[in-house]
């Protein structure tokens, strides 16, 4: 069509008619673009010819309603209006009124039309209903406003288009459900043959069920009673259908519900049908005798619907009976003394029993499962009662007290990685989101139909996963609260979920004995890991994501390849259900705890026979490695904590101050504090080196879970008293109490320490999610020893050592000593000399060592040299792997976080991207007009930033090699560039005496931080809450990167060339060039006090590179000490 077929006046008129409603614009575009019936100009004219823009008293949706009316009118052809309207009511009415969406083919089967007829009916409504791309997808309404329009007679003026859940519609749906069940159900419908097998024991179980029960048949089985209850009782057709179902299909239906994992719902559906029919139990004059207790019967109570009778006895058990048949349904065991009081909750979903053992037990009367054990009385229970709304349980005791309890519980907690959200999963089937900084309730995520057992954030924080006893995993957008996907595939309760470290894979374990691997982006199932013979209890990824471990109640562990889904090894040795599994920080050990009262240490690579750690006298509840991996802690129902040497397996200490079960333990990030949570209503802080109890933090009820913030400055504890407590682990003081919560069962901090998540359970106060802002640490010490400028630093993974490299020598620092001192050094460059104490440095062929970068997996090192090449080396054999040529003179090299890309900058103003496996050049990035001084990848590897002598920064896409943005603002050389740990800020230091903060997403300048001279070094603290900048004016400035405010100024230093934070953020190392002092100094600063801790001497030239080991025990410094005439 000609480009001017729509005039500007018509466009403006359409915009005004939209009334700022985006859905109006979208619907209008779809309607005008529908050329399957009429041309676009005709459809445009239909919209333009409707009434005036805004009538007096018109609602904001008036124009949208008129547009919807035109769409519906246009769906009618010139003839046979009556049949089209009938099909509309049946097809669209079913889409609106059915309890859950059905795929197109199943929808056609349900409404008894051919699939092509349903497709044709929906094709004319494509402006408002999303047509499925194939028959296996369900049609859905584009926007809720259309649903509201066609179900509200006051908004839709044509009554023939109004869809209301009238009895006739519900009658048709109820009868259709009975017809479908009569057609599809039969004995052994899935062809399993052996009725003694559990669902989890049947090969290809899910495929058999899918083939036997089509989606429309599954819908009929699950929702017939819902439609029946909306029909007036006595309607002949539905009564006949119900009688036929009861006589011919009901037993086959129970079998089908079992196959669908909904047998507990089947009981509720029968109760719903009884209520609709007004059926009451028919009692005989002669009552039956219920026999089964071995002691006196002390108490009995009927369920609210009268279909269940519970009795308590001096034999310590509760019996559930069918009062009509006088048969026993279940025996509930858990008390160890007489049961003297029993009460059902008003809705019949919970049974409480009180005993002379001083406890109250909560039970699920349908499954017979124990929900919770309530402890607090000091003498026998005499009476119990629920409040009328079921939200409170009261218990009276001979200890002269009445206790009030919340019978609902929160089961799981998790922080988002950025610390801005706390999520909690609850018994009330919901997930709650909280703001831990403001302590505000954010939103409630609804979609599960049973208890939420597990929640986890993806590493980037953009996805929240929840696992439930409804057999599904739900994916949510934590920002909007929208449901992203529903992952179905398990046939039993979800017990645990975990994201891989890179977020590309989600694993879920279930009591069906399987582990499922999912793609969290598409929601597709990647693999189903089968091998356990009983339910999986726990799953965990190795630190590098290459291995997934699962522990099961079948007493075994399995190791899996999460990429292929193939089993790697089966680890056997435990004689009880495995309760907890954890990898050591370096991934070289796997520890497991079990109900056999033991821990076992495994080699996940060799899968050799484990080391057995014995000492506990009851179930092991939790285990935790210290951050450096040199200590393993375990807690147990025997009320003790044990500390073990994971290398020798010896017990180091036994901590015994708790008086009840110890539920959880956690090390602080620096490993100096061990926290434990107990049923004795306390959290205890321990010194793991001496085993001495440092502090006792009191709750008012059972403490279920604890978690340290990543920077160690905050400890969170979740309690059954409906509160999350935040503590200062140094002083033991309470920071805050987060209430309006259910009983708290689990806690987790985000990776950057800015967020705390807590999970709880409640009805009026359903499970909550809290996020908390954690503060940063300060500088600790000064290290001296190099004689030339330092250009490279790196911490060891255990944090006990730091390696520093200069152009003439390399130092290894012991950070466990006071003050730190160099363990070893190497100084010859022209020819490789001896390097005492550690791995020798690697040299270029010309002996001109410039830079070392170590790949993430430690298998290769990369060398950049003045011979204009980059070389790849095998650090074990010393062999050259590849020679990368293309630069005129390389300046700097850096690996992407996942090791898949190597970037090198050059004095020729370009950046080269290389494949480190093949050595091939991926891309050449050109844009700077002078030499690139610095390059850095964002934490997730999605962006590469470069800074140059031309005073600019550039952002690049490392996958395509395309430029993203050019950041201008500096007026002199850009000396260094660094991303914040969460990747949301970029900092640059310049010769123009400023530090600039940038938004790497928009490229906008956020703040300018001013010095009085060249700024040569910058570094973010590990949690991103502090930015340090070192200047040529002999000072270090500490800044708040969010506000740009100055926190502190550290002086008495030389010209600062290098900065590095320790992993816990409590120590800052600075390297300088001070003409007043020879040798050159390396300073360590304590950031809590702002004072210098130590001065390390040894360098003779400026120190220009620093890095701590990961455990903070070592520091590496680099200097220009080699050549008299410069490097």
From TrEMBL:
Q: Which Gene3D superfamilies does the entry link to?
A: YVTN repeat-like/Quinoprotein amine dehydrogenase
Coiled-coil stretches are none
Annotated SMART domains? WD40
What SUPFAM superfamilies is this protein classified in?
A: WD40 repeat-like
Write the record's keywords in alphabetical order, separated by commas.
Answer: Repeat, WD repeat
Annotated Pfam families: WD40
The WD repeat ranges on this chain: 290-322, 332-373, 374-406, 410-434, 445-486, 487-528, 529-561, 571-603, 613-654, 655-696, 696-737, 892-924, 925-957, 967-1008, 1008-1049
- Source species, domain of life: Eukaryota
> Is the keyword Endoplasmic reticulum in the record?
no
What PANTHER family does the entry give?
A: TRANSCRIPTION INITIATION FACTOR TFIID, TRANSCRIPTION INITIATION FACTOR TFIID SUBUNIT 5
Protein name stated in the entry: WD40 repeat-like protein
């Amino acid at each position: 069509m000609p480009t001017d077929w729509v005039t500007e006046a018509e466009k403006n008129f359409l915009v005004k008619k939209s009334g700022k409603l985006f859905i109006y614009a979208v619907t209008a575009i779809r309607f005008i673009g529908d050329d399957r019936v009429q041309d676009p100009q005709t459809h445009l004219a239909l919209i333009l010819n409707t009434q005036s823009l805004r009538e007096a008293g018109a609602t904001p949706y008036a124009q949208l309603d008129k547009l919807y009316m035109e769409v519906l009118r246009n769906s009618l052809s010139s003839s046979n209006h009556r049949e089209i309207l009938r099909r509309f009511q049946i097809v669209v009415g079913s889409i609106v009124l059915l309890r859950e969406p059905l795929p197109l083919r199943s929808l056609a089967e349900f409404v008894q039309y051919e699939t092509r007829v349903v497709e044709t009916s929906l094709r004319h409504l494509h402006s408002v209903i999303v047509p499925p791309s194939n028959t296996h997808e369900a049609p859905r309404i584009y926007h809720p406003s259309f649903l509201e329009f066609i179900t509200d007679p006051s908004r839709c003026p044509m009554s023939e288009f109004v869809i209301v859940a009238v009895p006739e519609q519900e009658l048709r749906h109820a009868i259709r459900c009975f017809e479908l069940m009569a057609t599809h159900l039969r004995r052994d419908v899935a062809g399993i043959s052996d009725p003694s097998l559990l669902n989890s024991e049947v090969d290809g179980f899910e495929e058999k069920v899918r083939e036997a029960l089509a989606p429309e048949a599954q819908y009929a089985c699950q929702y017939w009673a819902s439609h029946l209850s909306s029909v007036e009782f006595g309607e002949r057709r539905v009564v006949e259908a119900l009688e036929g179902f009861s006589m011919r299909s009901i037993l086959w239906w129970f079998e089908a519900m079992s196959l669908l994992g909904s047998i507990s719902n089947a009981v509720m559906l029968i109760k719903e049908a009884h209520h609709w029919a007004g059926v009451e139990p028919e009692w005989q004059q002669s009552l039956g005798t219920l026999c089964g207790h071995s002691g006196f019967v002390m108490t009995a109570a009927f369920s609210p619907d009268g279909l269940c009778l519970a009795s308590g006895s001096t034999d310590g058990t509760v019996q559930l009976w069918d009062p009509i048949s006088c048969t026993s349904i279940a025996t509930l065991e858990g008390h160890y003394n007489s049961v003297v009081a029993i009460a059902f909750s008003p809705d019949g979903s919970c049974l409480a029993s009180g005993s002379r053992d001083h406890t109250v037990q909560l039970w699920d009367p349908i499954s017979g499962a124990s929900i919770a054990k309530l402890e607090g009385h000091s003498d026998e229970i005499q009476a119990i009662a629920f409040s009328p709304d079921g939200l409170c349980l009261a218990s009276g005791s001979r200890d002269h007290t009445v206790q009030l309890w919340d019978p609902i519980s929160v089961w799981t907690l998790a922080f988002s990685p950025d610390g801005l959200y706390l999520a909690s999963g609850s018994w009330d089937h919901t997930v709650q989101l909280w703001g831990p900084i403001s302590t505000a309730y954010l939103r409630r995520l609804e979609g599960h139909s049973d208890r939420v057992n597990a929640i986890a954030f993806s590493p980037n924080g953009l996805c929240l996963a929840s696992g439930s006893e409804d057999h599904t995993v739900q994916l949510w957008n934590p920002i909007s609260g929208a449901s992203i996907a529903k992952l179905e595939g398990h046939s039993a309760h979800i017990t645990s979920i975990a994201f891989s470290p890179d977020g590309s894979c989600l694993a879920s374990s279930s009591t069906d004995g399987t582990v499922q691997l999912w793609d969290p982006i598409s929601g597709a199932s990647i693999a189903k890991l089968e091998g356990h013979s009983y339910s999986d209890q726990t799953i965990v990824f190795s630190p590098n994501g290459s291995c997934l471990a699962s522990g099961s109640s079948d007493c075994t562990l399995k190791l899996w390849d999460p990429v292929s889904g193939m089993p790697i090894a089966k680890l056997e040795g435990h004689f009880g259900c495995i309760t907890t599994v954890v990898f050591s920080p370096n991934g070289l050990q796997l520890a497991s705890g079990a109900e056999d009262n033991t821990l076992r240490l495994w080699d996940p690579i060799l899968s050799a026979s484990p080391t057995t750690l014995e000492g506990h006298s009851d179930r092991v509840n939790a285990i935790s490695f210290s951050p450096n991996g040199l200590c393993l802690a375990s807690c147990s129902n025997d009320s003790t904590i044990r500390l073990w040497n994971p290398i020798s397996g010896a017990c180091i200490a036994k901590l015994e101050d708790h008086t009840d079960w110890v539920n959880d333990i956690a090390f602080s990030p620096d490993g100096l504090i061990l926290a434990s949570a107990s049923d004795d209503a306390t959290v205890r802080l321990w010194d793991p080196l001496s085993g001495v109890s440092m502090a006792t933090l009191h709750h008012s009820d059972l403490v279920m879970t604890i978690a340290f913030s990543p920077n160690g400055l905050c400890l969170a504890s979740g309690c059954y008293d409906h509160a999350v407590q935040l503590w200062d682990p140094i002083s033991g003081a309470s920071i805050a109490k987060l209430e309006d919560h259910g009983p708290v069962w689990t806690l987790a901090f985000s990776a950057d320490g800015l967020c705390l998540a807590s999970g709880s359970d409640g009805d009026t106060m359903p499970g909550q999610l809290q996020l908390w802002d954690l503060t940063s640490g300060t500088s600790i010490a000064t290290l001296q020893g190099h004689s030339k400028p330092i250009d490279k630093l790196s911490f060891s993974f255990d944090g006990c050592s730091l390696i520093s490299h200069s152009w003439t020598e390399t130092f290894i620092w012991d950070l466990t000593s006071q003050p730190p001192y160099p363990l070893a050094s190497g100084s010859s460059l022209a020819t490789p000399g001896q390097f005492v104490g550690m791995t020798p440095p690697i040299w270029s062929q010309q002996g001109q060592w410039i830079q070392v970068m170590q790949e993430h997996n430690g298998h290769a090192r990369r060398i950049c040299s003045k011979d204009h090449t980059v070389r790849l080396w095998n650090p074990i054999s010393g062999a050259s792997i590849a020679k990368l040529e293309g630069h005129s003179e390389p300046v700097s090299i850096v690996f992407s976080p996942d090791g898949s890309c190597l970037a090198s900058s050059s004095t020729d103003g370009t950046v080269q991207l290389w494949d480190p496996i093949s050595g091939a050049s991926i891309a050449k990035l050109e844009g700077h007009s002078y030499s690139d001084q610095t390059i850095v990848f964002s934490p997730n590897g999605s962006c590469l930033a470069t800074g140059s002598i031309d005073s600019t920064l550039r952002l690049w896409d490392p996958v395509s090699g395309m430029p993203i943005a050019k950041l201008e603002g500096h007026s002199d050389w850009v000396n260094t560039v660094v991303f914040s740990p969460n990747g949301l800020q970029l900092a640059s230091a310049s010769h123009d005496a400023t530090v600039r903060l940038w938004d790497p997403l928009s490229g906008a300048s956020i703040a300018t931080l001013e010095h009085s001279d060249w700024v040569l070094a910058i570094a973010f603290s590990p949690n991103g809450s502090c930015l340090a900048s070192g200047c040529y004016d002999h000072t270090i400035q500490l800044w708040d990167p969010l506000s740009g405010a100055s926190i502190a100024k550290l002086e008495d230093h030389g010209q600062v060339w290098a900065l590095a934070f320790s992993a816990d953020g409590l120590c800052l190392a600075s390297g300088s060039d001070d003409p007043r002092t020879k040798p050159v100094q390396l300073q360590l600063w304590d950031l809590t006090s702002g004072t210098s801790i130590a001065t390390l001497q040894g360098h003779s030239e400026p120190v220009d590179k620093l890095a701590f080991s990961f455990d903070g025990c070592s520091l590496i410094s680099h200097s220009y000490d080699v050549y008299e005439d410069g490097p």
